Amino acid sequence: MGVEVNLEGKIALVTGASSGLGARFAKILALGGAQVVLAARRTERLKELRAEIEAEGGAAHVVSLDVTDHNSIKSAIAHAETEAGPLDILVNNAGVSHTGRLLDVAPDDYHFVMNTNLHGAFFVAQEVAKRMVARVKGDPKRQHRIINIASVAGLRTLPQIGVYCISKAAVVHMTRAMASEWGRYGINVNAICPGYIETEINHDHFATEHGKKLIDMLPRKRIGQPQDLDGLLLLLAADESHFINGAIINADDGMMAQ
To answer: What total of structural domains would you count in the chain?
Structure first.
């Protein structure tokens, strides 16, 4: 007897889908059968990703979204539901980082990270949840999923990225608060905390001397690939995860166990 995740009939919104983990998340949800709404500022890249998903037999839509702009959030989510239908799944992935000592962080640097990673994530989830709650009142058995992408940096401090750590720690606690308040409406809210995952953004860094030293300090002296998160993402998106709510799950190859 085989078991597989089937997301057919589900509609998923993925923020920050223009590159990196967001693009991978969108692809794997589409492969699982969901219609995927790709959201980010770089719409040309989203259109390329939509073509890739459609070439593999999936269904995707493109919406422009700047998570630091509340009007953009409301407009993008309304557009997403007009294009694809009511949202069942949100992957709250859009994020940025800043490198530097806390003593050197300028107000613009701080707000750049917090406005995207925390404020943006909160108001995207809030706008989606409002719509989910309204639908559940008419269909109490309906299930919804919100998956916040946090980081192991939200569970422990890492050097040179202190503001990023602060923002992701807030996302961890935000996840628990949302799960507690929204669970009664059939909305399960969980967080994935990836460890070091190689993407096009950080590929060059891991090839440097400093990057190699960092890898050598990891439990199995390796970094992850975006596909290493596929199974966890599909689990949290599926109806079968109905008893998982408020979970903060590391996917870090044992980094937090050190």
So the answer is: 1
pLDDT at 3 over 70: no
CATH of the domain at 221: 3.40.50.720
Q: pLDDT (tens digit, 9 = 90+) per residue, 205-218?
A: 888 998 899 899 99
Mean pLDDT, rounded, for 71-75: 98
Burial class for 119, CB neighbours closer than 10 Å (0-12, 13-18, 19+): middle
Mean pLDDT for the stretch of residues 85-107:
96
pLDDT at 2: 63
- Whether residue 1 lies inside any domain: the answer is no
48 SS3 class? helix
DSSP secondary structure string, 68-115? T-HHHHHHHHHHHHHHT-S--EEEE-------B-GGG--HHHHHHHHI
Q: Which domain holds residue 63?
A: 11-250
Per-residue pLDDT at 39? 98
3-state secondary structure of 38: strand
**Is 164 an active-site residue?**
yes
Please check whether residue 164 lies inside any domain of the structure.
yes
Residue 255 lies in a domain: no
